[in-house]
């Protein structure tokens, strides 16, 4: 009993609740989360289909945040099939980079986060790139956003409309500038997203509001979006990046595996078998470190029968 009490007191001290001054603990020093520490973005060179990134800017910070920005501000950051390939490529890099623990998705400039698919490259059957094939590869991006086992934060300034609105909804968190405008435009321009674009929205704002957004193509201010539960926080435009990085820093201080499993868990019900598959994958990963998982492997390597009987308790 006394040992348990001591452990609770120790934990409280680490979490800042004890009598000792929290600044004195090495735990707190290691995990200090600062809003004001400067962030140094350094560009990352990636190549896509033989060329360097052309429609996306990719940066990382020393502390473990990756920032991916759609770079077509003259088109309100509308995406082409190439933009999508570049976004996927950067997201995959951020996923595989063991130093990265949080990802920011945003748009260059302050006029738009993203205005959805570039309507000028839309033809019969989809959006057309250099190869002349009409595609809806935006759907591939959606899967990647949903599956990456790291938290993704949408940093939104200006318009987040059409497919751009769906990108922010599929990110795990959204930090919004006060100049942001949210909404769906598809039914106006002859398009719709009847997949996660509907189901995730209905989860976020409720079915009635979701139908209002889609059926009327209304646009909403940042404050209205906050009231509806579409975004996590609204800040003045000039504080947007600082606030977003601060949210990322708070996540960097927490267990990455816990966040990965929480993300998978929150998506699992909606994603059906694919959701269970991802969640189950985490169980398998942890089982690989478990004595029973290791006994099976060791027995195979030692060419003997596994002894699972020892674990019957
Ligand atoms: C976003 C706006 C509300 C901004 O209005 P604003 O007045 O601030 O700016 P302008 O309208 O003057 O725009 C400046 C400049 O950018 C061009 N532009 C803006 N958006 C796009 C775009 N989406 N495609 C192409 N070009 C765009 C605009 O033409 C101007 O160019 P100039 O040369 O004239 O200077 C407003 O711009 C707006 O409403 N934009 C359109 C929003 C839209 O309808 N997006 C498409 C929705 S459908 C979609 O995104 C989509 C894509 C997919 O891949 C899907 C795949 C599978 C299922 C569904 C999908 C889907 O729905």
Automatic annotation (TrEMBL):
Give the GO terms filed under biological process for this record: menaquinone biosynthetic process
Among the GO molecular function terms of this UniProt record, one is:
1,4-dihydroxy-2-naphthoyl-CoA synthase activity
Which family is annotated?
Belongs to the enoyl-CoA hydratase/isomerase family.
Example GO CC term: the record gives:
cytosol
Is GTP-binding among this UniProt entry's keywords? no
Which principal EC class is assigned to this enzyme?
lyase
Q: Which UniProt key words apply to this protein?
A: Lyase
Annotated protein name in UniProt: 1,4-dihydroxy-2-naphthoyl-CoA synthase
Q: What are its E.C. numbers?
A: 4.1.3.36
Q: What does the record give as the reaction this protein catalyses?
A: 2-succinylbenzoyl-CoA + H(+) = 1,4-dihydroxy-2-naphthoyl-CoA + H2O
């Amino acid at each position: 009993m006394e040992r348990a009490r001591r452990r609770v007191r120790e934990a409280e001290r680490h979490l800042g609740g004890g009598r000792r001054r929290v600044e004195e603990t090495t735990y707190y020093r290691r995990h200090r989360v600062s809003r004001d520490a400067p962030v140094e973005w350094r560009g990352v060179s990636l190549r896509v289909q033989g060329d360097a990134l052309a429609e996306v800017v990719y940066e990382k910070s020393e502390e473990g945040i990756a920032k991916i920005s759609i770079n077509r501000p003259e088109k309100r950051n509308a995406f082409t099939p190439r933009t999508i390939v570049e976004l996927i490529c950067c997201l995959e890099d951020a996923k595989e980079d063991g130093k990265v623990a949080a990802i920011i998705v945003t748009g260059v400039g302050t006029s738009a986060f993203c205005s959805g698919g570039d309507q000028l490259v839309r033809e019969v059957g989809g959006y057309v790139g250099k190869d002349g094939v009409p595609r809806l590869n935006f759907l591939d991006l959606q899967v990647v956003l949903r599956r990456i086992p790291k938290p993704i934060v949408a940093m939104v300034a200006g318009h987040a409309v059409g497919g751009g609105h769906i990108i922010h909804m599929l990110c795990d968190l959204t930090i919004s500038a006060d100049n942001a405008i949210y909404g769906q435009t598809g039914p106006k321009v002859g398009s719709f997203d009847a997949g996660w674009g509907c189901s995730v929205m209905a989860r976020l704002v409720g079915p009635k509001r979701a139908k209002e957004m889609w059926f009327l193509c209304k646009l909403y201010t940042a404050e209205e979006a906050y009231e509806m539960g579409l975004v996590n926080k609204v800040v003045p435009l000039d504080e947007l990046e600082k606030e977003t990085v601060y949210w990322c820093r708070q996540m960097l201080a927490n267990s990455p595996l816990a966040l990965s499993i929480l993300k998978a868990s929150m998506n699992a019900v909606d994603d059906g078998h694919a959701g269970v598959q991802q969640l189950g994958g985490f169980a398998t990963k942890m089982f690989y470190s478990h004595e029973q998982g290791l006994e099976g492997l060791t027995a195979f390597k030692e060419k003997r029968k596994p002894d699972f009987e020892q674990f019957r308790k």
